[in-house]
Sequence to fold (414 residues):
Amino acid sequence: MSHATEVLSALPQHCKLCDCEAAAEPIAICERCLGPLEPTYPADRRYPGRDEIASRQQTIWRYREWLPFEGEPVLSLDTGFTPLVEAPRLAEKLGVARAWIKNDAVSHPTLSFKDRVVASALNAAHAFGLDTVGCASTGNLANAVAAQAARAGMKSWIFIPEDLEEGKILGTAIYGPNLVRVRGHYDDVNRLCAQLADRFGWGIVNVNLRGYYGEGSKTMAFEIAEQLGWRLPTAVVAPMAGGSLVTKLHKGFGEFIREGLVSGTAPRIYGAQASGCAPIVRLVERGEGPLVPEIPNTIARSIAIGNPADGPFASKVIRSTGGWAASVSDEALVDGIRLLAESTGIFTETAGGVTVAAALALAWAGAFKADDEVVLCITGNGLKTTDAIRNALPASPIVNAKVREVVALVEAVH
Ligand SMILES: *Cc1c(COP(=O)(O)O)cnc(C)c1O
Ligand SMILES: [Zn+2]
Fold:
């Protein structure tokens, strides 16, 4: 594994439900039971210790033994290691001892946590010899696939719901992909892509490469633990779309505990959704039975998935950690965006507003204790969803370039 010359290959997979084995291939669904496939890590893999990890470059690849490959990664080598920012004023609002923002709003290269999963998926595509990649996206994934495929010299076919925010559309089109706007919701786009992957032999990162894609999310957990000084927080709040991120955060913390890199118990995981599309929150609240799909109706488009692939797993993980889930209105998420900006100096998109607002709602409902140490996963950048806050902010005064006009303004403020 550690030999710099070893050629990249992807790990084989197994079914998360029936455990049967599957080859290292662009396939993500068990042929026997239709369950999701996950990479199988070799039993004899040697994992690095704290010092060895710390000596490596500050990217997701410093944790490469926990990513689904043998040999050296070749693409998207610069992604990861976003700042973990302490947020004392937010901690006060939440009534907890300490709070931090894991700030993937400044992820390289496309300003959302999707850069992590795409870095992993594109290396899988490379290992499989695929020259064309794609995705079904609510926006951020489209940005990440288009940018990283462009850099890799791969062709890309990207499918998005027709009505996405302009920032998300332009932030994809600029990289020169084949960008297709589909009439319908994300769930329609996703179904279409499942059919296209087989037909053209493409690597659709969140469809037939999904097992390799999802593992990239674990690096957010690894970074949180390392950046806290090889410690675990007591609680983590994260937004949910397909439900993969919260599931993989838990898997990542568990893998670091297993290797003795951190001690203590796994953090309680709290999931956040917008009330206009909250099928996973409702499943957590019910506690049993199947997930009930919804038709999305929220401005939080990046997390508006009505029939989330990993929803049932996410719900189970959340409840097993002693965490919970909350949904918030569109008005509350706009307030959440403003609160994060005004208290912490970080401008997040709608999904981040959902996360902050849900954390507040959970705090008011008594989810946190006074000695809790809470990390909020902020997964996207506010400059991509400016429409959401345009009408919420006060108009700025316009003056002539005269001192006395500013004096009048200052006096009015006091
Ligand atoms: C995709 C996305 C998520 C969550 O993704 P999962 O499908 O639940 O892993 C969260 N925040 C943002 C901004 C996203 O784009
Ligand atoms: Zn199976």
In short: The chain is about 35% helix and 15% strand.
